[in-house]
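Q: I'm writing up a methods section and want to include an example of the input and output format. Could you take the sequence below and give the corresponding predicted structure tokens, formatted cleanly so I can copy it straight into the document?
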Amino acid sequence: MHDTLKQQDHPLHRLSPEDIEELGKRFQAIHDEVRADLGESDAVYIRSLIEFHRRLAALSRIVLMASRYPPAWVLGTTGLGVAKILENMEIGHNILHGQWDWMNDPNIHSSTWDWDTASTSVSWKHSHNYLHHTFTNVVGLDKDVGYEIMRVDPKQPWEPRFLAQPVINVLLMLLFEWGVALHDLDIEAIKKGEKDKKVLLEELKGIGAKARRQIVKDYIVFPALSGRKGFKRTLQANITANLIRNVWSNAIIFCGHFPDQAYTFTQEEAADESQGAWYVRQLLGAANIEGSDTFHVMSGNLSYQVEHHLYPDMPSSRYKQIAPKVKEVCEEFGLPYNTGPFGKQWLMVQRTILRLAFPGGSTRPKAPPYKAPPVQKKERPSVPTPAGPVPAFP
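A: Here is the clean output for your methods example:
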């Protein structure tokens, strides 16, 4: 175990085997309770959200047919950007996690859903659902740690190429959907010549087909519907809407994984772990973002990243409900519950990316064990003292 983690009293090593086993049971009980309670109200939620997204996207595209007029351009672009965020975050991401498979609706199922982004569903489910959520924050196994192109943890050996990562970071923000699309190719294996060429060719064909559909849809067909005079302005609107979605999803995802409080792990620490140890690692490797209900929906409820990593197959609309129960378990076992405002989390991520572009770097202090805020007692209103003599009653 690293000296820095010894100094921080790493929770995964401090807990006894009995504690870890009990934690596994407690966290699993929360999952099972929600699973048994899923019903029509949950189904109504996702179906209503999909219907709202489709209407918003269609209305925005109609407005953009008049994109040569500035008010229409602003309104249509904003609406389309919001629609793309909703589809990418709260709808597509969560459906592909299998959160709604229990409905047995063939139109809202992880095996059939195809989302409005450059990544194919098959490659994303492998790189994200399997690799990332199985090996969360395990350096060398979780390819989301730096996305294979950046150094975001001091455990990663420094190389001269990391000097460019502040620029790469900005490019990844702007082109995030394309970075995710290429993510499952396993760039490291390709560089080392370990990738099977036939497999690589099939994956490239899949990415190419999906990229072609996205480019034709957003950059040819819909701009053409605006006519010759509006083509260029609608093209600009679609590019802007995709940039809005890319920057937003990048910010939410990075804030959930790379703030100072999130732990990373060695492969030895994650080897042969029990279900309870897996739950603890998920808890320690994620960070929440505080915000309003609207903010949570726009983030795909990934603002509850802790709950999402504990229960990736649970409908995201239930994360707010179970958060107090997760906090109770954290407080009982002396575990951190990492959370903070969006601006604070985002700035910490950017500081880490900038600092670790250079040699060296140390592990930042971690969050202390969670303590519930004290309940404030409501003060009884004081009774004003009468200004004159108290009248006598018979």
